[in-house]
Amino acid sequence: MKGYVFHGPGQSAWEEVPDPAVKEPDDAIVRVEAVTICGTDLHILKGDVPEVRPGTVLGHEAVGEIVETGGDVRTVRPGDRVLVSCVSACGRCGYCREGIYGQCRGGGGWILGHHVDGTQAEYVRVPYADLSVYPLPGALADEDAVLLSDIFPTAYEVGVLNGRVRPGDTVVVVGAGPVGLAAIATARLFAPERIVAVDLAASRLRAAKEFGAEAVADASEAPEQLIADLTGGLGADVAIEAVGVPETFELCARVVRPGGHVANVGVHAAPATLHLEDLWIKNVTITTGLVDTHSTPTLLRMASAGRLPTRRMVTHTFPLDLMQEAYDVFGNAAETGALKVVLGVPQHEVVPVHPTV
Questions:
Q1: What pLDDT is attached to residue 312?
Q2: Please, what's the b/e burial string for 171-207 (b: 16 or more CB within 10 A of its CB; e: otherwise)?
Q3: In this predicted structure, what is the pLDDT of residue 346?
Q4: Alpha-carbon distance 132 to 112, whole Å?
Q5: What CATH number does the domain containing 181 carry?
Q6: Residue 138's pLDDT is what?
Q7: Closest CA to 101 of 136, 124, 137, 127
Q8: Residue 357 resides in a domain
Q9: In the chain, which residues have pLDDT < 70?
Q10: What are residue 112's DSSP bridge partners?
Q11: How many other CB atoms sit within 10 Å of the CB of residue 39?
Q12: How many domains in the chain?
């Protein structure tokens, strides 16, 4: 089969790799029908995630069909159409027993495309299949479902739930990429008074308005003033960091009000300054996290009912064998207008809502 292989910083290729096989009795082999690219994959290619060994197939999001299972798998069987979660759960360790699957100490957590071969391939081996794949309803299309592998649960759990968004809040989302847009969409479920999106790209600020932001601000034009004006000088109840660079985290810490929450979602590769000389007196709560995916069943039901704007986030589609072209488009989003790219679905099935700029 073929897969997209990381060979070191700046080096990758769609190439022949060995077919996956069942290694453990709780494994499943999935034939990939739809896959997408994550910002974390770009971080890996830049060398920001040194644990990823050269020779690893990338990817941690997919929809596909079960073709083989180990003898201990009970919840799915060959022929089932499933969502492959970005997080695998052993189900036995202390963290898994508490539903904190992202911190699994039994061999799970974020392993696909990180510690073991991932989903950007024609087939993938999924460990701990009973807790790491989810049967899909027939009415939910591949390009909708694949966005529930990672970005929607990540935005919802690490951003909205960790940030404790409540009715009447002012929520600031810094970064209007896919995860930021998913944070806007899921924050709206809690009836905040307003959502303010901050980004550098005009195309992403337009998208933020379409996903429900009442106000937008260019990150280069002192967004602190707009947020202060909207809140009577207090600042945001919740500031969600969805980029992963020092400047955006520090901006969130500046715009949050006393007693507010900063929810960091972005993947950081460099230190950020924590200004405790300003924050110590403000009763601010700062949270970080890797998604646990405990919300995936809920989000699947909501997507099936048409309550999540999944399809609107897909701007480009490709066949699997154009993986490198898809990476080029996604990695140059400022020029291409890309939000999410999906590979493996027929291109005519998805009409981009945010064409190239």
A1: 93
A2: bbbbbbbbbbbbbbbbbbebebebbbbbbebebbbbb
A3: 61
A4: 11
A5: 3.40.50.720
A6: 86
A7: 127
A8: no
A9: 345-357
A10: 116
A11: 21
A12: 2
